[in-house]
Amino acid sequence: QKEVEQDPGPLSVPEGAIVSLNCTYSNSAFQYFMWYRQYSRKGPELLMYTYSSGNKEDGRFTAQVDKSSKYISLFIRDSQPSDSATYLCAHPRSNQFYFGTGTSLTVIP
Amino acid sequence: KAGVTQTPRYLIKTRGQQVTLSCSPISGHRSVSWYQQTPGQGLQFLFEYFSETQRNKGNFPGRFSGRQFSNSRSEMNVSTLELGDSALYLCASTSRGQNTGELFFGEGSRLTVL
């Protein structure tokens, strides 16, 4: 079992929709999670990070961790065409990061 | 502040050849890690260096190797290339180490093996 597993997508939504991106993790001891965004032909860049459980909000983006179900979610409100990218969940441990396989999102104008 | 720079950006090799990829981290960052990205497997960790020492290595064969120089620049080498080595190779640097710090990625080196 991989440490972090992610819904593969792809996901296509109309502009203005609410997007939900999800990952699950295997080890209940994990406490630190990150979401990276990767545009085409670019390297990933940090979008948000969360520690432990609960919600963290940053503008149109909300990251949520549910420790009871070992579920990580990223919500995007009022999605824009500029949000079209691949989203990767990640967890750092033992001097490396474990990434999900990524969900490709397309927001249609 | 300049970002992470990777060279070359694109390269084509044939099976059996070897390749060396280079990474210049953000100034002041001492931790450099390498990841292989493929459509099926996503990002897979290759190795991480801190102050010229390899601190962690992923589950890749010995054909994959790396090193870090005293100026924190890093190289990775793949010998006896196989078709399955075709991938985007990403380098990332961080100032705080890999357990809590944000990774800053380069744009990658896209390797095609024919």
Question: Care to give the gist of this entry?
Answer:
Chain A has no helices and eleven strands. In chain A, strands 2, 4, 5, 9, 10 and 11 form a six-stranded mixed β-sheet that branches. The interface between A and B is medium-sized, with 23 and 28 residues.
* Rg over alpha carbons of chain A: 13 Å
Query: Main beta sheet of chain A, described?
Result: 6 strands, mixed
Indicate the percent of residues in helices of chain A: under 10%
Order of helices and strands of chain B: EEEEEEEEEEE
Integer average pLDDT of chain B: 93
By secondary-structure content and strand pairing, the structural class of chain A works out as: mainly beta
What best-fitting shape of chain A do the alpha-carbon axes yield? globular
| Beta-strand fraction estimate of chain B | over 45%
Number of E strands of chain A: 11
Helices and strands of chain A, in order, run as EEEEEEEEEEE
The residue fraction in helices of chain B comes out at under 10%
Largest interface: A-B, 23 and 28 residues
Largest sheet of chain B: 7 strands, mixed
**Residues in β-strands, percent of chain A:** over 45%
Q: Roughly what is the average pLDDT of chain A, rounded to an integer?
A: 91
In total, the number of strands of chain B is: 11
Task: Outline the low-pLDDT stretches of chain A.
Answer: none
Assembly category: heterodimer
CA-atom Rg of chain B in angstroms: 13 Å
The helix count of chain A comes to: 0
Using brief descriptors, characterize the structure shown.
A: 109 residues; 6-stranded mixed β-sheet; 5-stranded antiparallel β-sheet; 11 strands; globular; B: 114 residues; mainly beta; 4-stranded antiparallel β-sheet
